Each structure stands twice: as C-alpha cells, then as structure tokens.
Amino acid sequence: MSVIAFLGAGNMAAAMVGGLLKNGHAHAALRCYTESGQSARALSALTGITRAESIPALLAGADLLVVAFKPQHLATRDAALVEASSGKLIVSVMVGKTLAQLQSAFPHARAWVRAMPNTPGKIGAGVTGWCAHTTLADADRALVDSLLSPLGLALEVTEAQINDIAAISGSGPAYFFEFAAALSAAAQQIGFEPEVAKRLVTQTLLGSAQLLAQSGAAPETLRNQVTSPNGTTLAGLRKMEEARLRETVLATVRAAQARGLEIARES
After folding, report:
1. Domain-embedded: residue 153
2. Does 12 carry a binding-site annotation?
3. How many domains does the chain have?
4. Is 52 a known ligand-binding residue?
5. Most buried among 19, 126, 161, 179, by the most CB within 10 A?
6. Is 7 annotated as a binding residue?
7. With contact defined as beta carbons under 8 Å apart, do 39 and 10 qualify?
8. What pLDDT band is residue 19 in, cutting at 50, 70 and 90?
C-alpha cells in the first residue's frame, strides 16, 4: 500500500485522511507533520495515523506528498523540503498556488498535481477537481486516483478551471452551511426549539439534495414542482427574488474566485 504524507494537518487534510481511512487505507501508511506540531498531534490523536517528528521522517519511504498547509506558508517553507521531496509525487490542495509555483518550490519532485477537494470528502461525498503539470505516468495517475477517489467524485480539469472549482465546490459547502444556519435561525424565530429546527432543516436539505441527484431534473424543475400558484412557497420565493438571491450568489462566487487569483499572486 502506498505511503501518503501530509504536510499540514488542518481541516482539508483531516477530510482527506478521513476519506482514505473510511475506504480502507491503512493507518500505518498515512503520516502527517506540521512545524508547530500542534495540529499534527491533534490529527494523529483523532485518526490514529502517524505524526512525524521531522520533514525527513515524514517523507522517508513516502510515495506521495500532500501539501495541505496555508498558501502563504509556501514562500517560507522549510528548506529541508527541497531535498526530502526529491522523486516524490506532489499533490497540492493549496488554493491559488499554481503548478509553476509548485514546480519551483519542489524542483526535484517527479510530478506535480493541483487538487481542490472539499470537506464532504471526509464521508466520501465530496468533489475534487485536479490537474497535473504534465501527463502523468500510469502508476502516478493510479496513485492520484487512490488518493482522491475515496473522497467522492474526482474530475480532471485544466489548470485554468481549478480556481473556478475552488469558488464553487471548494467553498460551496460553506455557502450551503450558511444557508442551513439561516434557515435554522428562521425556524427558531417562528417558534421551533433549536434541536427541532436543526432536525427539520437537516432532513429537508438532505432529502432535497438526494432528490436533485437521483431525479436528474433541473433545479428549476424541482422548484416548480414544489410551488403552487399563490401558495406559501411562491410567497417565499418572491422574497428571495426581491432580495436578488441569484445576484448575491453570483457575487459570492466571484468574490471567492477573485480571492483565489489574489492568493496566486502572493508569494
């Protein structure tokens, strides 16, 4: 089984580790390291994977290095990474950092991949867009697939699309959770107890997402099926229209997209 090393141990690394473990990857074949050690220690305690004490220990015998620290840390990375990453397959989940920047940071690696997973990957229900610097060897493509497929849907895209994927599916769960929080708060405002509101909202959103996935129908078609002339749903939808919901969502996505481009320019 391939040894996978995680440089960084935050939410995204945790989601990926969780997805791998859920799909049968051995604990002993997963390692993590952070400079401070704090988040790596927490991830190790939570999942049972190995916490490496140093970068050389992290990468000794590893097949693949997942770079999962904050994008701004790439410029101040430990110099030991240059030698230790020699010959490794590099997969970065850093927002905004280009393949050219990865190649510059890890010049002796054998291949470079950018990936943009999202946190539902922790339960195997995520989506990951990815692209490679050059055409991958069959063995490396299989290794990337072994990393990403347990997380859910994996789509190979162009590098130009990676930043756009970050603004949609990468950040999308946060948009979804914010809507869930708003709907739950509204339920409480009209009289439901917090736990009842949470259960109502969670099942409503879960069932709606499953219906969308299984029916094959467009979201607008399903919306119209719920909406009766002069009914309660129509009254609510008109308020959304008055509030320019779609324009707000587009502005939200464009803001995330623009920030991704800014991060790419930062060193």
Report:
1. yes
2. yes
3. 2
4. no
5. 19
6. yes
7. yes
8. confident
182 known ligand binder: no
Please give the Cα distance from 168 to 157 (Å, whole number): 14
Q: In this predicted structure, what is the pLDDT of residue 76?
A: 66
Instruction: Tell whether residue 9 is among the known ligand binding residues.
Output: yes
User: Residues 136, 208: one domain?
Assistant: no
116 appears as a binding residue in the annotation: no
Distances (CA, A) of 16 to 43, 107, 242: 11, 25, 40
Q: Is residue 167 part of a domain?
A: no
CATH number of residue 9's parent domain:
3.40.50.720
- 141-190 pLDDT, tens digit per residue, is 999 998 999 889 999 999 989 889 989 999 999 999 999 999 999 999 99
pTM of the predicted protein model: 0.83
Same domain, 147 and 182: no
In whole angstroms, what is the distance from residue 239 CA to residue 176 CA? 19
Is there a single domain that holds both residue 184 and residue 146?
Answer: no
Q: Are residues 142 and 193 in the same domain?
A: no
Domain finish residue from 135, 162, 189 = 162
Q: Is 71 marked as binding a ligand?
A: yes
pLDDT band at 267 (very low <50, low <70, confident <90, very high): low
Question: Is there a binding annotation on residue 23?
Answer: no
Task: Confirm or deny that 69 is annotated as ligand binding.
Answer: yes
In terms of residue numbers, what domain contains 28?
4-162
User: Residue 180 sits in a domain of what CATH number?
Assistant: 1.10.3730.10
pLDDT at 183: 98
Tens of pLDDT, residue by residue over 82-98, are 899 999 999 999 988 89
Whether the per-residue pLDDT at 54 is higher than 80: the answer is yes
